[in-house]
Amino acid sequence: MSSTTSSTVALYLTSDACIDIDTEQLFDRASLVKSRKSVRIPICDIPYWSPGMIANATFFGDPEFGPKYFRSENSSEEFGNRWRAAIGNWDDKIVVDIGCGSGNVYAAVGGLPRSIFGIDISYGALEHAMQLGYTPLLADAHNLPLIDGFADIVTLNAVLHHCDDMARVLSQAARIVKPGGLLITDEDPLANMPEYRGLALPIRAARKRFPMYWLPGRSTVYTHPREEALRLATELHNRNPGDGVTPALYIDTLEPLGFSIELYPHYHNVGDELFQGDPGRMGFTDNLIKLLCGSNAPPAPQSIACIARKAS
């Protein structure tokens, strides 16, 4: 492990954090059969690996699928514009990107944060993020081994719905934000997406089981059956009717912790204009899904962005 990386992470670890356990033992336990000859990334002890955690570590750390996700997802101009507008200026700030994956947020936003820590459970993804400039830490977002109140900005991009306990992860993220700091999340699917209603339900089920890539919502990026199956296994809260995030998740979790909250439901084709009241527009697939749900189905943007500021 790089001594610089180790010493930088150590500044913000809790006193009881258990770091640098045997790497091969950890990956064997998680059924991730890729041995490492040397440890370059600090690893926090994770006593229990849920099936969802293993799925996420496997897919996003896969040497083929992980880079494809980095290239194809969250790489649009709108994505970068939206995140830059939400963050403002993070130069000379301490940033923690929870569930950073291969580093999409930093790759899109750029800038010169004082430190940008990438937290993830996928070693392979963290290796890529490290090349972009992240200070990596392999840890469980449900139990962050980090001290309270040190980060100027904490980000979670398309993370919560990949976690077993969304409220727990959100509260852990909130804990490490300093007074006056920002917690920003985006691209978690809304529970009221129209895909979960009407005729769209059996089509949603069919597209998971059969290689009919023309079906609404079927991925045109992950076209190999194993690849698509692994990706879908990571979507812990995007599988069944009613799955996804709700405004109540943010309000009930963050307001008691002293945060003021702004929520922005949106489609993925919108950039910084989201924060001027434009949620974007439904694309062809969105319109088709809405039609299948029934003409009376209410508008339902794909995702929600949350900008929460901790009281000073």
TrEMBL record:
It holds the Pfam family Methyltransf_11. This is SAM-dependent methyltransferase. PANTHER family: TRANS-ACONITATE 2-METHYLTRANSFERASE-RELATED. GO terms for molecular function: S-adenosylmethionine-dependent methyltransferase activity. Residues 96-184 form the Methyltransferase type domain. CDD domains: AdoMet_MTases. InterPro entries: Methyltransf_11, SAM-dependent_MTases_sf. Keywords: Methyltransferase, Transferase. One of its GO terms (biological process) is methylation. Gene3D superfamilies: Vaccinia Virus protein VP39.
